[in-house]
From TrEMBL:
The lineage of its organism: Bacteria, Pseudomonadati, Planctomycetota, Planctomycetia, Pirellulales. HAMAP family: GARS (MF_00138). This is Phosphoribosylamine--glycine ligase. GO terms for molecular function: ATP binding; metal ion binding; phosphoribosylamine-glycine ligase activity. It comes from Rubripirellula lacrimiformis. The keyword Manganese applies. Keywords: ATP-binding, Ligase, Manganese, Metal-binding, Nucleotide-binding, Purine biosynthesis.
Amino acid sequence: MKVLVVGGGGREHALAWKISQSPRVEQVFVAPGNAGTARDATNVPIAATDKPALIAFAQKESIDLVIVGPEAPLVDGMVDEMEEAGLRVFGPSKAAAELEGSKVFCKNLLYTANIPTASYRTFRSGEEASRYIWDRYGDPSEPVPVVVKADGLAAGKGVIVCSTRQEALDAIDRIASQREFGDAGKELIIEERLIGQEASVLAITDGETIVTLPAAQDHKPAYDGDTGPNTGGMGAYCPTPIIDEELMSKVESDVLVPIVHAMKRARRPFKGVLYAGLMLTAAGPKVLEFNVRFGDPECQPLLMRLKTDLVDVIEAAVDGRLGELAPLEWDDRPSICVVMASEGYPGDYEKGRPIKGLDAADAIEDVKVFHAGTKLVDGEVTNDGGRVLGVTAMGDTIAKAKLQAYRGVKEIRWQGAWCRKDISDKARLQ
């Protein structure tokens, strides 16, 4: 069969790499792809948001299965239009994808479905939100433990954690007035700041059956020790000991099952990947956000460990047959992904800097370098984004997997390259 993966990041490279291992797959296309997917699949120079061109390509090539990776085309209704064109496609509908596309919709649904989450208020203007902060926190010396969020998609950056009144007012100004995140800031949320460890639980569902994947732990802040601004994710490891079997059962019963039922009641049945970003508080797990696709970088260590044919799982979800699927098989060894980023990320950065050492890193045992923001220029791999590579490794223990991943990192160099040095260290604290 022929498979088309839509997208060009680290998640899509991992998907293409894993799908290409299926004995049932003859050819994997990635649109638009990157320098890494050019090695493991066939790149197609079509933007991930160009629905007409992607549909035309899929029909011309007789594509048997389309997998939409990023959130933007999902929220824009790509699955609906592809299905109308007669294509088999994996991912949620436009109506279902609003679970990620609008934080206001998500929070309201969590509230009505009685799913544990932070208390919150929604606002349609910066003035209204600022007035709330002034009224609620009158004493300037009083701590202001809130999180200010842009309603729409902001590439993982539209969430600002605050500790003081001025920080909260500045966050509101950036989102609602300066429109730092564009139209994502048309509405905003102010919610209580939860205390605890974050974890990610992903599940694949066909709207009826839920297949939960091993829990992972992402590292959102830019710098070591969880300091600095939020990013799209600086690394992840899987499985995380912070979620044991008992806690996973609670997440399934209190979060995943209720949200699938709530979406069905809202006449937005959900098919695809359901990603719950959780804060593990003293009062139990609470939902920070829902995403409607594989997380990036969580996807990379997850797929490194998956032994079951991913195509079988995805087709079962598309066809509504997940309940017939045998339990997924996993490599017992943990896996770690370390993101290497461009100088200046998550702010401004320069592109086009040549990257060296990729082959040496890939040659290390149990290491795979997944490309995210890379581009081929005259046959040379260059950086083309903020998060550039996801150096992913497995090991008998989390410590050994970390050692292998950073061995891979040490082989790779380009001007301004950097990464966090503490990915997976949280596991030692569990």
